[in-house]
Structure of Glycerophosphodiester phosphodiesterase:
Amino acid sequence: MKKKIIPLALFAYVGMMYPGRKRKDPILNVKHYAHRGFHSEEGVPENSMAAFRRAKELGYGIEMDVQLTKDNVMVIHHDYHLKRTCGVNRYIKDLTYEELSKYRLMGTRERIPRFVDVLREIDGAVPLLIELKMETFNTTLCRLAAEALDHYHGLYCMESFHPYALYWFKKHRPQVIRGQLSEQFFKEKEWKHAPGYFAVKNLLTNFVTKPDFIAYHYKYKDCLPLKICRKLYHMPIYGWTFRSREAYEENQKYFHGFIFEKFMI
């Protein structure tokens, strides 16, 4: 009996990673994305308008993080909490945009920008890799981001750690290129050990969400789910986050694209 179960389990494991028919889109040919904008210079903090302008000047694609304030304003910020970036013991979801706009980023004059203002500033000059920050199955952020992007004329794609964000776009904006963010969560201290993370780290929701690409922590380039998606399903794999030229150059053969910071390519 065990001899029958093992092949069936392996078949199911591999089958759940199947992303469906591969699409072609120009943005997937863009190799380099500045992580949270290009913020390697003094006075230019991550995910700030200054960082996005600098990336635009240098011609890099831009990776950014979008989340909602208490009054459902889309803002660009990575952490859900403001302690690291603004020195304030508050969560973004507990503040209105007006309240949030009083804080400065990393001790600079820069403030947390609105998503719509960033779209207006970039205006299609470089491609955008937009991460949707979702903690629950509430898809308000998906809807608002999609509505804003409906009027945007530049190249962009979306990604998220939360598979339900990808599913929402598959159902409501199937033309939008979507990517599954992941890593080996249980090897990283900041992640919780929960069943959902097991599914995401192994890319087991692919057969439902049908991602066009995978964005995975580059140091886990040889993990089994990436090998399967790379070699069997020929999926584009983007590596994050490269913080040195040495790491970037050593991993050229493993990735189609590179999300990087703190150096120029």
Summary: The CA atoms of residues 246 and 263 lie 10 Å apart.
